[in-house]
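Objective 1b: paired records.
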Amino acid sequence: MPDEGFGQSQFAWSIRGNPNVKKIFAQLWQTNELLVSFDAVGCFRDWHWNSAWKTISGWYHCDQNPIEKSHRCSIQGFVSLTDNNEFTGGLVVVPQSHKHFEQLQSITRIGKERANFCRVRRNHPLLKQFKPRLVKCKAGDLVVFDSRCIHCNTPALDIEEVTIFNEDKIPQLLRI
């Protein structure tokens, strides 16, 4: 939800300003003087309730320009509000792709619009060389990664089998 203003809401700022989140980023950058860029909030609804909610998988990209910022390391992160696994979907990263970031220069558009966004097609050699992996995490986990890492989101990869109908097992929509 990059354009709806949710990234600047009190809710988003309360997560961003959490002392534990700040502590981790201070350790990563080795300073308490932090400047935050918070461009969006990602929300995914359980598409089993409504198939129109299913996210499009495989829009691999990097959020750093390999031409203009080829050696600069930025760190992205999110605090997961729910468990993420093969039954829910979530963040997919391409391990080791940040070490081959310069290979994305030939596919990067130069210009002001989305200058820090580099779309990576599904047939790119780096996706074949390094197997994309779903990041499994628990509610409350902070997930951080190098912005040069190729990544995307995916819907659930597997369906959780429920053999007996039980009202206690009905998935609830997240209320914030």
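Objective 1b, second protein:
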Amino acid sequence: MNIGIGLWELFVVLFYIVIMAIPVIFIIWLVKTMGRIEKSLGRIEAKLEQLAQR
């Protein structure tokens, strides 16, 4: 009986860790993605400037 409660508590703790980790992982992914988008926009902007100069 005691082992069963221990496993259940472990499961609950892991569940809470996952819930806490999801927003952190999402924010890290968002920051990385924003960096990529910013680089892509920078390239597009440079191309548009080159076209405008011609």
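The mean pLDDT is 90. The two ends are 79 Å apart (CA to CA).
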